[in-house]
Design a protein that fits this description.
This protein is an alpha+beta fold. The protein contains twelve helices and 17 strands. The relative contact order is 0.18.
């Protein structure tokens, strides 16, 4: 490999039984949504996160859509959402005809529970067990929490607020499979398993991948059965093709699940690689003036999916200039997402005192973090940043 070969941001690591399992699926001709790997993959994820079951789907977005439907969020309702997230976490709110209320982030990059609580207490009123937005008159039914970059949102506070105001918590854990609390009242609990329903994603850049795909988990087995029913076109009689609701073609294929099962076998190894690489970056970036690597919570075992370098104001280059310099070094990096409340479809919806999200959006650069990243590649990333600082 040449010294200036391309270093991607985040790519799959297919070093296990992926080819064996996918070939088996092809040889047995179970390639569509039927087939044993789908069930095996669902069981593997459920067992890993200590959930009574799991329902596979085509992607994290479809999982959020189904979860909102099962939370009875419908036309005319409202849902609290973060603005600092990928837009796919918010779009399903619109699918069901509800309105998003955009919330700021805290220093974990996840939804700020203090501002959430203030909004509920000062901008809303209780009508029986319903939280009503004073400005719009809408019933706020749910909160979508995103565990950003594998970090855990402050679920202790968020779940307490949700209980007091009768809100259902939908956990977008699409970036956080393998993240769990190590101390406190939720010690041992995985991201995605604490709320009403949780969703994982297996997109190509995630810590494990099925190419595309997702998984829904919940403590409530009846909810999981309903999710599976809706995801398979709501068939009430499979032989005679009878349907009792408007369903969706959201099921995962056996080929995808074959890949996913092999990836699950390596997940803990991948997390250890992520952690080791993060520690290397942390040690080698701390002496570069004007930048710092964002930390992860100390009471959580994060999967360390993405690494975030904060470009301080005194650094010689802006965030955008840093990304351009990385590109010149043949290193892929990226800014954090554009804030969702500023995106064209969402400018008319309420955004509540967005401050930290704006700051982080303007200063964060994500650097290469693949589980198969070589030490020499990380050294190149560090050296490139060192040159920029001079």
């Amino acid at each position: 490999m040449s010294e200036d070969s391309f270093i991607p941001l985040s790519v799959p690591n297919l070093s296990g039984n992926e080819k064996l399992y996918v070939n088996t699926a092809v040889e047995t001709e179970w390639v569509s949504t039927g087939g044993p790997y789908v069930t095996d993959f669902e069981k593997s994820v459920a067992n890993y996160v200590h959930s009574p079951g799991a329902v596979s789907c085509q992607n994290g977005t479809s999982g959020i859509h189904l979860s909102l439907m099962l939370a009875n969020v419908e036309y005319g309702d409202a849902v609290f959402v973060p603005t600092l997230t990928f837009i796919a976490a918010v779009n399903p709110v619109m699918y069901v005809g509800a309105s998003p209320i955009f919330m700021d982030c805290d220093d974990t990059l996840c939804l700020d529970p203090d501002k959430l609580e203030t909004y509920c207490a000062t901008k809303c009123s209780m009508d029986g067990d319903k939280l009503i937005d004073n400005q719009t008159g809408k019933h706020i039914k749910a909160i979508i929490i995103v565990h950003v970059f594998g970090e855990m949102a402050n679920m202790e506070k968020i779940l307490n607020i949700a209980e007091r105001y009768h809100l259902r918590v939908i956990e977008d854990a699409t970036e956080a499979i393998g993240t769990y609390y190590t101390t406190g009242p939720y010690a041992g609990a995985f991201a995605g398993t604490l709320g009403f329903m949780g969703i994982y994603s297996f997109n190509g850049n995630k810590i494990i991948t099925t190419g595309g795909g997702g998984m829904i988990v919940s403590k409530n087995e009846q909810l999981l059965q309903s999710a599976k029913h809706l995801s398979t076109q709501a068939k009430s009689d499979e032989l005679h093709y009878l349907h009792d609701a408007v369903g969706y073609n959201y099921r995962m294929t056996n080929l995808q699940a074959a890949l996913g099962l092999a990836q699950m076998e390596q997940l803990e190894h991948f997390i250890q690689s992520k952690l080791s690489n993060y520690e290397f970056y942390k040690e080698n970036l701390e002496n570069i003036n004007g930048i710092h690597l964002l930390p992860f919570r100390t009471d959580v075992r994060s999967n360390h999916w993405f690494y975030s370098v904060y470009i301080e104001d005194q650094f010689p280059l802006t965030r955008s200039e840093v990304i351009a310099e990385f590109s010149a070094c043949n290193i892929q990096s990226r800014p954090i997402w554009g804030l969702v409340h500023e995106q064209l479809p969402y400018t008319s919806f309420h955004a509540y005192t967005i401050e930290r999200a704006t700051m982080y959006q303007q200063h964060i650069v994500n650097i290469p973090c693949s589980t198969n990243l070589k030490r020499s590649e990380m050294e190149r990333v560090v050296a490139c940043l060192q040159r920029m600082s001079q």
